[in-house]
Amino acid sequence: MALKRRGWVGCGKCAWRTAMGRRAFTMIEVLLVIALLGLIAAFVFPDLSRELERRSLDESARRLRSLIMLVQARAMQDGLRYRIEFPGTPDPLDLRAKDEVDVPTETEQPIVTRETDPLERPFEFEAFDWDWLDQEFIREGTRCVSVLPGQPEFEIRSTSPIAGPSIQEGNKSVFVPLTFNPDGTCDWITFVLTDLPEDVDLKPEHVTRILNVIVDGRTGETWIQRALRVEEVEVMLEHRASPIMHQDFTRGDLITENNILEVRIGQGGGVSTGR
Predict the structure, then answer these.
(1) pTM for the complete prediction?
(2) Which of 43, 53, 100, 107 has the fewest C-beta atoms under 10 angstroms from its C-beta?
C-alpha cells in the first residue's frame, strides 16, 4: 500500500510539473505576441493618427463650405442679410475696433446671425434659431486662424516657406465677417483652416494641412484650396498663372516649372489641375 501510495504521488507530481511546463510555455508565447503587436502599433499609430487629423481638417472645411452655401440660400429665400463670423471678429462698423487680433489657439465654431429689421435697424445682426446651427462644423483639433477680405493674395513672407497668413501663436491675424446680401452676393472672403499646433515650425510639406475655404464675391461660388509653397507661388506668377484655382485642390504635389504647363487656365483667370 505504501509503495502504491508513493508511486501515485510521484506520478501526480510528474503530471503537475508537465502541466505547469506547458502553461509556462504558452504564457511566453502570449507575451511574445503582445510584444510584437506593440512594435507594430508603434510603427502604425503615428500614420493612423496623422490620417485622422487630416480627415478632421478635410471634414471641417467641407462642413464650413456647406454652411456657407446654406446661409447664402437662406439669405435669398428670406430677403435678408445673413452673416457668418468667428468669435472675436471685430465689428466692421466699430471705428475703434482693432484691424488685427491674436491668432486663435483653440477650436472655435462659426456664428451665424441675420439682419432682423433692415428698415428700422439696418446692419444690426441678431442670433436666431435654426436646426443646422446646433451641430459642430469645425472638428476638434482644427482651428480657423484667419478670415481674410478680398481675393486671396498668397502673400510671401521671408519668415515662412508657405505663402499666406501666419498660423502660429503670438502673431496677429485678420478676421472679418462674411455677409450675404438678399440677392446672394457677398464680398470675396477666405477662411484659413489648419490642424497644425500653434507652436509648429512650418515646413513646405505642411501645405496640405492648411486649407483655404474661398468664397468668390461675384457668384458666391465656394471651393477648398490647400496652401501654396512660396516656390509654387513664384513659379505660377512667373508663368502668369493665377494661384486662385476656382475648384477644389488639396493634393500635395509640388507645382514646378516642369509641370506648370499641365495646369490649364480656367475661366476668370482661375487655375485648374484637370482633376
Answers:
(1) 0.77
(2) 43
